[in-house]
Write a structure and sequence with these properties.
Number of helices: 8
Radius of gyration: 33 Å
Strand order of the largest sheet: 8-10-9-11-12-13-14
Shape: elongated
Strand content: 15-25%
Number of strands: 14
Structural class: alpha/beta
Order of helices and strands: HHEEHEEHEHEEEEHEHEHEEE
Helix content: 25-40%
């Protein structure tokens, strides 16, 4: 045994003895204390030799205080308790390790807005997420200076991600699985990823902090800001509406006018400087989003043209709240400031009985919608 191994073993034993809080640790401690106490009550010190220059001997002790039969009987009981508690601790440790071996953390990182590899999401996962890490790079880059020129080519990679996750989860209990998502991808592709992952159980969302240049959990406090909603009554009777969600930037009316002629319903945060680094806040915003969608469905809307100006995690969490069975069809659009129309393409989501993904190009004539 090397010195490093021996040192690790000693440190682990000492740490367990002084810090562990399980019953077996207290039994072990009690046995050690009792063993020291009974032997401490039967001690003898003998010395033979010169004492201040005069030959002699000295004997000091408490020998015989506890009869030998009782002494060794107590010692045997203490030894059994120590061995038993040590075995109990080892069994507990083995069981915990077996449970940990079943736990898995699936890390899905979407890349699409940066050509560089950047800081990997997997490296930013906190140690509190227990389990073997399995990462998947959802690479949606086309290396065209951040502009997506062939969006049709990106639908298959998103679908492949969902297939990979299902295969990786196979044969595991869902209670042992955690999925972590983070990405920097175009809004329609982020929304599509959220729709596909909406039923994957425990999904933890992280986002890229541009100021700190790092991946970050949504663990800040809720600032209480919520969407202001307008335009629902004006949309009554329309079969198609534009739903403009302004979370980080304002969706401008003049930009919408380059692409759409439908009534516009707006969800707008009152302060674009506000941080969205709160899971509680994003959950509340998603609840508002679902509520507006239900109202649009109730007034007879059949198709929603969805425009989102928000950070990646907000788009993803809104998508996970979309009810794929009971809400209208929805197409999510990409904003391109330098193009006309400003929203040149979108992705029709696999909801409301739409089985096949497709890219909608607004610069081309689209067939009329039929219910």
């Amino acid at each position: 045994m090397s010195w490093d191994t021996f040192d690790f073993v000693i440190r682990s034993v000492v740490a367990w003895f002084f810090r562990a809080r399980h019953a077996e640790s207290w039994i072990f401690r009690g046995a050690v204390v009792a063993l020291v106490a009974v032997h401490g009550a039967n001690w003898v010190f003998k010395y033979s030799g010169p004492v201040w220059g005069i030959p002699g001997s000295v004997e000091i002790g408490t020998g015989g205080t506890i009869p030998d039969g009782i002494l060794w009987g107590l010692s045997g009981v203490c030894a059994l308790l120590m061995v038993g508690s040590a075995f109990w601790a080892w069994k507990r440790y083995a069981d915990e390790q077996q449970k940990l071996s079943r736990k898995k953390v699936f890390v899905i990182e979407g890349r699409g807005l940066r050509d560089d590899d950047g800081s990997p999401l997997k490296a930013a996962i906190p140690n509190s997420f227990v389990g073997a890490r399995m990462d998947y790079l959802l690479d949606l880059r086309q290396r065209k200076d951040g502009v997506i020129v062939e969006p049709d080519d990106l639908l298959q990679p998103v679908g492949a991600m969902k297939t990979w996750l299902h295969q990786a989860q196979r044969g595991n209990d869902r209670i042992d699985l955690t999925t972590v998502y983070g990405g920097l991808t175009a809004v329609p592709l982020t929304f599509l990823t959220g729709v596909l992952l909406d039923d994957e159980g425990n999904v933890v969302v992280m986002d890229w902090d541009r100021i700190g240049s790092r991946w970050k959990l949504l663990d800040d406090a809720d600032d209480g800001l919520r969407f202001d909603v307008s335009g629902i009554e004006e949309a009554r009777g329309a079969r198609e509406v534009v739903l403009a969600v302004s979370g980080s930037y304002m969706v401008k009316s003049e930009d919408l006018a380059t692409t759409f002629t439908h009534p516009v319903v707006r969800m707008t945060l009152p302060d674009f400087q506000s941080s969205h680094w709160s899971q509680a806040k994003q959950s509340a915003m998603a609840d508002q989003f679902l509520g507006v969608l239900k109202q649009l469905d109730a007034i007879g809307v059949d198709r929603i043209h969805l425009i989102l100006a928000a950070q990646n995690s907000v788009v993803f969490n809104l998508a996970r709240r979309y009810d794929k069975r009971n809400l209208p069809r929805v197409t999510v659009y990409q904003f391109e400031r330098g193009q006309s129309p400003r929203y040149p393409w979108g992705i029709e989501m696999p909801v409301a009985s739409v089985a096949t993904l497709r890219v909608v190009h607004t610069a081309k004539a689209e067939p009329p919608f039929s219910k």
